[in-house]
Write a structure and sequence with these properties.
about 250 residues; flat; about 35% helix; 4-stranded antiparallel β-sheet; 5-stranded antiparallel β-sheet; 6 helices; 11 strands; alpha+beta; single chain
Length: about 250
């Protein structure tokens, strides 16, 4: 009889533990999948683990409009950009949605209250780097840092296109026969030339980037200095590409 009591008690405790664990997992899932749009940076069901949307909006008060009103609009999409090389700071991409005019702002944040608009402002990006605990170790870190710089400091409505191969160029959707011929010519010429951004053979701190700006195919040599500043030299490879016009 003692064995039956012991067995029954063990079975009861086992069932209780299983039910409790299931409830814990279920409740935890409900919390994780119930984002508060007013207080978190969200995209779909994903909650950003850094600044809340409320905090980002509070900081943006110092920037005024149109940044502040854009953040206050619930239709605006806010995303945190990957910046593992910043120990105490980060970047946020703020994108308007129709019927608003398409615009993308990039905001840099650091410290307790600091915030800055980085579009068209390379010096603002370098100020962020100087205050955000920049740490670059691997060649991949340098590549990410340079390409993020190019993305973050672009114009509000456009910018350069960083390439990984020539085929992904934003070709004209309805080319003339001459433009179509040029596309085939350019593609054949640079298929084995254009490649994804990578460190140079000489140093990880110099990153080679192939890109298109103002319909010009460029090869950039981006040198990252010790303070995080980036010095860029350019080689023009091909002018008047049959691509869409970007700023």
């Amino acid at each position: 009889m003692a064995q039956n009591i012991t067995g029954g008690l063990a079975g009861y405790l086992g069932s209780f533990i299983l039910v409790f664990a299931a409830c814990t997992i279920s409740c935890g899932g409900m919390v994780a999948n119930s984002p508060n749009v007013d207080s978190t940076l969200t995209k779909g069901d994903f909650i950003m683990a850094d600044l809340t949307r409320q905090e980002l909006t509070r900081r943006a008060a110092s920037l005024g409009n149109p940044i502040l009103t854009t953040l206050e609009n619930p239709e605006t999409v806010v995303e945190r950009m990957p910046t593992s090389y910043f120990l105490d700071g980060g970047l946020y991409r703020v994108s308007t949605r129709p019927p608003e005019r398409p615009r993308t702002y990039v905001l840099g944040v650091w410290g307790k209250n600091e915030i800055s608009v980085l579009n068209n402002e390379p010096d603002a990006f370098f100020k962020l780097a100087a205050n955000a605990g920049l740490k670059l170790t691997t060649g991949g870190d340098y590549v990410d840092y340079v390409t993020t710089f190019l993305d973050a400091t672009r114009d509000y409505t456009g910018g350069i296109q960083v390439l990984t191969n020539i085929d992904e160029s934003w070709w004209l959707p309805k080319p003339t026969p001459e433009e179509a011929r040029r596309r085939e010519e350019v593609t054949a010429k640079y298929t084995k030339v254009v490649e994804a951004p990578k460190p140079s053979h000489e140093s990880n701190s110099t990153v080679i980037v192939y890109c298109i700006r103002d319909r010009n195919l460029l090869r950039m040599n981006a040198k990252v200095e010790n303070d995080g500043n980036i010095k860029i030299s350019e080689d023009l490879l091909e002018a008047e590409m049959p691509t869409v016009m970007l700023r």
